[in-house]
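Title: Comparing notes on inverse folding

I've been comparing how different people in this forum approach sequence design from structure. To keep things fair, I'm posting one structure and asking everyone to reply with a full sequence. Here's the target:
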């Protein structure tokens, strides 16, 4: 789990993904010689902080977003949410501005109208527009791993594991997902126009709920706030049963992912969200069962070989 620990420690909230992009490009360059197929690496001008890896003749793409939730420092150390952080007061936040490293404490206050405001308790005023993220505390037991930003560093980790043996397919490391998206449309355009790719798997992390539990396998989502095409979902479920990998069906009314952005794009992409469930969503204590992680990698490898 050392790679996952490293990924969780990288500060890269939505809009400030460059740290993660540079890490991934360096990692790919160092390790691609050990992969079954050497991918074409697409990045740079016209792609912002996104990365696309193209292996062989792709028919299906894995989308894994590289950003996280966090905070932007406003005036007098007030904090503005990036995405939907769910931390409680007292949470440790880290960052850096022109005056140096920052380790602050999250303050949460409620006014007479039950309106919550957020601020950073620090010994000086932090530069405006500085981004702050959770201080990582990676914990591992026989059954679980726990840290901030399992969503979606675990999805990125899964994609890198699949890359080791992938012969035909694409892997997309996308941005801005936690704060409304915005990159997936033109990334889909590139894959559709250059490789005629029209199928996607969303490598992301979902929630533990009454219907989706730790240790019951990777979750295959039939819907969240978006509704994928049932014909494609039926194909995914049939292949999942055929694979022998342990999985559980998810049905939710809320939440979203890169899949929703794909569905809103002008390109005929089918998509399915497949990910391990976690407790303590969007807090510093996101917790995932190791068996669900193993099942996630195994199912992705099988699907990428059979779709």
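Reply #1:
Here's my take.
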């Amino acid at each position: 789990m050392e790679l996952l620990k490293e990924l969780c420690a990288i500060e890269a909230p939505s809009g400030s993904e460059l740290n993660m992009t540079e890490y991934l490009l360096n990692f790919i360059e160092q390790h691609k010689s050990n992969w079954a197929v050497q991918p074409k690496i697409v990045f740079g001008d016209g792609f912002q902080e996104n990365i696309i890896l193209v292996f062989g003749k792709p028919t299906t793409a894995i989308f894994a977003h590289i950003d996280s939730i966090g905070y932007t420092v406003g005036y007098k150390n007030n904090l503005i949410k990036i995405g939907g952080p769910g931390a409680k007061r007292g949470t440790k936040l880290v960052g850096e501005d022109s005056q140096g490293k920052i380790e602050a404490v999250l303050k949460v206050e409620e006014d007479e109208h039950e309106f919550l405001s957020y601020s950073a308790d620090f010994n000086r005023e932090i530069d405006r527009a500085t981004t702050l993220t959770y201080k990582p505390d990676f914990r591992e037991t026989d059954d679980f791993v726990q840290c901030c930003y399992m969503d979606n560093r675990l999805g990125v980790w899964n994609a890198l594991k699949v890359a080791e043996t992938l012969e035909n397919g694409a892997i997309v490391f996308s941005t801005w997902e936690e704060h409304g998206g915005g990159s997936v449309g033109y990334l889909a355009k590139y894959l559709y126009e250059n490789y005629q790719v029209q199928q996607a798997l969303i490598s992301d992390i979902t929630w533990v709920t009454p219907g989706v539990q730790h240790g019951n396998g990777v979750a295959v989502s039939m819907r969240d706030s978006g509704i994928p095409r049932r014909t494609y979902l039926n194909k995914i479920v049939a292949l999942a049963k055929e694979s022998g990998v342990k999985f559980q069906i998810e049905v939710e009314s809320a939440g979203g992912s890169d899949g929703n952005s794909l569905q809103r794009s002008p390109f005929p992409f089918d998509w399915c969200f497949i990910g391990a469930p976690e407790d303590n969503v969007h807090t510093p204590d996101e917790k995932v069962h190791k068996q669900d992680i193993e099942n996630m990698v195994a199912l992705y490898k099988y699907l990428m070989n059979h779709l």
